[in-house]
Amino acid sequence: MPLELAAAAANAPIYWENLGLRPGIDLGFFTLRWYSLAYLAGIALGYWHLTRMIRSPGAPLAQRHAEDLFFWCTLGVIFGGRLGYATFYEPSLWSDPLALLSVWNGGMSFHGGMIGTVLAIAWVSWRGKLQFIRVADYIAVNVPFGLFFGRLANFVNGELWGRAAGPDVPWAMVFPHGGPVARHPSQLYEAALEGLVLGIVLLCLFWLTRARWRTGLLVGVFTLGYGLSRFTVEFFREPDQQLADFAVETGFSMGQWLTMPMILVGLALIVIALVRPPHGTALRAGKTAPSA
């Protein structure tokens, strides 16, 4: 009997509620949500690392451009992420302007945030007469910071859980609003692939190789890497309730459909970057970044 009880306990799912996680820090008059802190941490760490990157030879931007990018990319992520969520996942928000603007209630789309970030980079590049793709290379290296913290925040909030898991998945979890079924903690899968693994790959390419001299290579690796990671994890992630029928009818989730173009674009950018000659020899010889 003791052995049977031990075996049953070993096969029992993990209950999210027993982990002692809370969605935020209660300050009495205000609850500081981990999701908000995740955005702040990702943006702050990305900006700090970007300021280190532009000190390397041949950087396509100066400190003043990094400051502009910090401001405009932050707006692009927030507004693009929210508008993208309303467009791709919850169209009903368009009929309620107050709900649409209530970003603190959750509901952000990576693909919308990506579009907002691309527009922000284009704006800063145009104003500063910078090379858009080379600036995008430097920004792409820092995006996994935000993805990592954001997915961890999703897990702490007990949201965006995965599909039902079989008994052969010992780390399966029962989430508060996911019913009594043990599910894949797909938030952690995404944090590992989109944030940790992709981030390490990009950091190694930038600091340990000459990838930054290949215009478009870093942003291509990010785009392809994110697309493949997200497409794969979507097989373990429960589709949003309002899009469950869409996933059944089309065979793929909304997230997978949105990442398919990213995979193709990423491949194209990588091929073009490898076929073209590296960035100018003058820069490779040690030319400094634009003057501040």
TrEMBL record:
The family database entries (PANTHER family) matched by this protein are listed as: PHOSPHATIDYLGLYCEROL--PROLIPOPROTEIN DIACYLGLYCERYL TRANSFERASE, PROLIPOPROTEIN DIACYLGLYCERYL TRANSFERASE
Q: What is its EC number?
A: 2.5.1.145
Name the enzyme's class.
transferase
Q: What is one GO biological process annotated to this record? A: lipoprotein biosynthetic process
For membrane topology, the record states:
Multi-pass membrane protein
Question: One GO molecular-function annotation for this sequence?
Answer: phosphatidylglycerol-prolipoprotein diacylglyceryl transferase activity
What pathway is this protein a component of? Answer: Protein modification; lipoprotein biosynthesis (diacylglyceryl transfer)
Highest taxon listed in the record's lineage: Bacteria
**Sorted UniProt keywords:** Cell membrane, Lipoprotein, Membrane, Transferase, Transmembrane, Transmembrane helix
Q: Where in the cell is it found?
A: Cell membrane
Q: Which GO terms describe its cellular component?
A: plasma membrane
Q: Which InterPro entries match?
A: Lgt (IPR001640)
Q: Where does a 1,2-diacyl-sn-glycero-3-phospho-(1'-sn-glycerol) bind?
A: 151
Q: Which residues cross the membrane?
A: 27-48, 69-88, 108-126, 138-156, 188-208, 215-236, 256-275
Provide the function of this protein: Catalyzes the transfer of the diacylglyceryl group from phosphatidylglycerol to the sulfhydryl group of the N-terminal cysteine of a prolipoprotein, the first step in the formation of mature lipoproteins.
Q: Which family does it belong to?
A: Belongs to the Lgt family.
| Name the UniProt record assigns to this protein | Phosphatidylglycerol--prolipoprotein diacylglyceryl transferase
